[in-house]
Amino acid sequence: MSKIESVPPVAEPRPLTKWSQDRRLEFIDFRLRWEGRLNRVDLTKHFSISVPQASLDIARYLELASANMAYDKSARVYVASTNFKALYASSNASQYLNELLTTQTGLLGPEASFVGWRPSMDLVPTPGRLLNSDTLAALVAAIREHRAVSVLYQSMAQEELQPRAVSPHALAHDGFRWHVRVYCHLRSQYRDFVIARILEIEPSDVTYVEPTEDKQWANVVKLVLVPNPELSGGHQRVIELDYGMAEGKLVLECRQALLFYALKHLGLDQLTGGSPIAHHIVLENRAEVGPLLASNTG
Q1: How far apart are CA 185 and CA 215, in angstroms?
Q2: pLDDT at position 269, please?
């Protein structure tokens, strides 16, 4: 039997060592793109390599992209050129912002990130979610080994704790909480359980049910997002820019089992109501998606 515990802080990772030269070239590219400068010390500190090796790495980068940087003798650093063009996809904006975010939340230690200098930033606070490490490990093992488990589950539908035998086969995150996708032997159907609501877990003698018939998990649905047509033309163009829409649309793919959470996360769970400014995107193919929408919260 397991006990509820909070997730401990992420331990600081060890310094990155023994990376290939290609990884170090990727680092050079990233630092030039987002900090505009680089010196040998950046490489020696981050990768625990010698100064001669750092010099070789810089020389190799110059062979590949000689127009990307130049040496500033007065500052004794390499600086990015005005016509810099990234060699690696990992130097894109999403990667940079994701690294800022994961280091800010503690999911990634500073030593594991390519980001050196960091701008001031913060994020909207969200409630912490209690997870039991033993419970999660047991669920992952059951998925890996195709084994059923017996759980004591606190459902929102009933106040009484419910013992259930389940066959877990996948994990999912709804934007706020972690779920486990299971075949529930009590309900004889595939459902998803909030992991934090599993209070006890132990092995079960019930025969494991494979996920081959979990059609809601296998079925991928397209969500076509468009600006709210009640917005003015100028405001619609702003929304197109905000969401990176192409030709006025953004198409997302979502498993049918996660539709409820996806629409709620996007603010599209309400059919009507509210001002266009508050609901600035709408689901263009709602008539197609609506019949597929089903609650799978267990």
Answers
A1: 17
A2: 79
Sign of the Cα pseudo-torsion (281, 284, 285, 286, in order): positive
**How confident is the model over 22-55, as pLDDT tens digits?**
999 999 999 999 999 999 999 999 999 999 999 9
Q: What is the dihedral of CA 81, 82, 87, 93, to 10 degrees?
A: 120
Distance between CA atoms of residues 52 and 57, nearest Å? 9
Domain of 68 in residue numbering reads as 21-112
pLDDT tier, 142 (very low <50, low <70, confident <90, very high otherwise): very high
Q: Give CA–CA dist 196/295, Å, rounded.
A: 18
And the tokens for 250? 């953004």
The residue-averaged pLDDT of 186-196 equals 94
Q: Judge whether 122 lies within some domain.
A: no
Question: Does 243 fall in a domain?
Answer: yes
pTM higher than 0.85: no
CATH number, position 163: 2.30.30
CA dist., res. 73 & res. 53, Å (int): 20
